[in-house]
Design brief:
Layout (H helix, E strand, L loop, with lengths): L1 E2 L10 H11 L5 H7 L6 H6 L5 H14 L6 H4 L9 H11 L5 E4 L11 H11 L4 E4 H4 L6 H11 L7 E4 L2 H9 L3 E4 L3 H12 L5
Helix pairs in contact: 6-11
């Protein structure tokens, strides 16, 4: 069982993006559209691979969003990423861990880029110990949907992709996993993900 972190074990940052755009009178979905444009080599991709620092990310994101119709500073987007843990997903993960190997592949940012996250990092740490193996993009310089990151996880867990279930909230990140033979679940809510996990594993997760 392989999980994404943000938007799967936590609520989606997309809600925070929408709120921010409404409050600032920005075009709808400007942040998501900036993230999606040239998604393998844009500011976001470079930051998640730790190829640029926060100041460069701030400038690049501003340039990219401006090209799409409105300037948004990269620094202003970072605090919007902190979703809330979904307790029902954490409970499901605990039950799955008792029966199966577990892994987490997360596209994340270099340490300390969102400012003080002491409280958050404590509860994130409590969840991270539930995984047999964790791969963080900013630590290895690779990010989803690069197929190599999924291969690294399969090798670390010593499992056959055909016996794996992979959960992510972004379709673009599910595709490489599916092509390797994994069963994939696109997460839209905790309840939906748990229902599909129960179907895939045969476990009672609530």
């Amino acid at each position: 069982m392989i999980f994404d972190f943000g938007g799967v074990l936590t609520s989606s940052p997309f809600e925070a993006f929408s709120r921010f755009e409404t409050e600032r009178g920005l075009p709808v979905d400007i942040i998501r559209r900036t993230n999606a444009a040239n998604h393998l080599e844009n500011a976001w991709a470079k930051f998640e691979r730790a190829e640029v620092d926060v100041d460069t990310f701030d400038d690049l994101f501003a340039d990219e969003s401006r090209a799409l119709g409105a300037e948004v500073r990269g620094r202003e987007v970072l605090p919007l990423l902190q979703g809330d843990l979904r307790p029902e997903m954490v409970e499901a993960l605990k039950r799955i861990k008792a029966q199966f190997k577990t892994g987490c592949i997360t596209n994340n940012l270099p340490a300390n880029t969102i400012g003080s996250m002491t409280g958050r990092s404590l509860y994130v740490a409590e969840v991270m110990v539930l995984f047999d193996h964790v791969i963080e993009s900013a630590k290895i310089g690779l990010r989803k949907p690069d197929p190599r990151i999924y291969q690294l996880m399969v090798e670390a867990l010593k499992v056959d992709p055909k016996n794996c279930v992979y959960l992510d909230d972004l379709g673009v990140n599910l595709k490489p996993a599916r092509e390797m033979g994994m069963t994939t679940i696109k997460v839209t809510s905790g309840a939906q993900a748990i229902a599909e996990l129960e179907a895939a594993t045969g476990l009672k997760l609530t």
